[in-house]
Amino acid sequence: MSSDQAQPLQGYTVVITRAREQQSEGRRLLQSLGARVLDLPALEIGPPDSWAPLDDALGDLENFHWLIVSSANGVEAVESRLQLRGQGLMQRPESLKIAAVGRKTAQRLEELGAPADFVPPTFVADSLIDHFPTSGWGLRILLPRVQSGGRTLLAEAFGEAGSRVVEVAAYESRCPTSIPSDTLEALEKGEVDVISFSSGKTVTHTVQLLEKTLGNTCTDQLFNKPAVVSIGPQTSQRCRELLGRVDQEAAPHDLEGLVQACVQAMQRGR
Asked: What confidence category does residue 123 fall into, taking pLDDT thresholds of 50, 70 and 90?
């Protein structure tokens, strides 16, 4: 195998926009393929404004049929609040089933000893709705989610199917205040080949940060060269809305797929 095949991103610079605490695995995967990796943390994960709605719902778990979690952040929040009660997802009521959207979400549940009862075949919310193992009629569903900016698709779809859905804020993903200086310098010099986005919010916050730092015109110019790579359909939609295009979308819609999409974008010459 040639070095180009073993390290297809050799000589390319890739910017990753995940939350700072979630960047290490993406960095490792990209570097293993030869990429120079720069961080542009576009999310700061923290608690919601109030824990009360989540705590109230967790105190009533025996009256829910399903817990649906769509991110590892949601799993962590639920588990940490249950532990304050001397409980955990592993000790949940026998009648409560768990559905997980995404490989990492399901993996975190496994690590906690509470494997998901249902994981859709593809790692997007639409797939969970399309393949849900039972009718939604009469179900009571708990849906912990990001406080702001998340999709309401799951709640709306299950509501239309006759479920009673309780949505509660489990965490918040806020916009950081600044961009790392080495990343900003590389963007200004036109050294960045790929910018990868892992959620619609990372697109929104990246644009906000760049416009705050450089102004609207300079921000538009910065995106002329780099390939814009998205993790999935909703992120791609946000890219088109704010950046005017998306050059490659991950398949499957997870971190490994996102890394491969970066490779594909460079092989296509964007």
From this structure: low
pLDDT in the model for residue 127: 76
CATH number of 139's domain? 3.40.50.10090
pLDDT band at 1; cut points 50, 70, 90:
very low
Q: How many separate domains does the chain show?
A: 2
The residue to which tokens 């990209």 are assigned: 30
Query: Tell me, what DSSP letter sits at residue 67?
Result: E
Q: If residue 228 lies in a helix (H) or strand (E), which one and from where to where?
A: strand 227-230
Give Cα separations from 66 to 98, 123, 163, 164, 239 (angstroms): 6, 18, 10, 11, 32
Phi (first) and psi of residue 106, to 5 degrees: -65, -40
pLDDT in tens, 197-235: 999 999 999 999 999 999 988 888 899 999 999 999 989
Tokens 């649906």, located at residue: 68
Structure-token match 């509470």, residue found? 114
Which residue range is the domain that position 119 belongs to? 46-174
* 142: phi then psi, degrees, rounded to nearest 5: -100, 130
What is this structure's pTM?
Answer: 0.85
Read off φ and ψ for residue 161, nearest 5 degrees.
Answer: -85, 0
In this structure, are 138 and 221 located in the same domain?
A: no
Burial label, 95 (beta-carbon count in 10 A; 0-12, 13-18, 19+): exposed
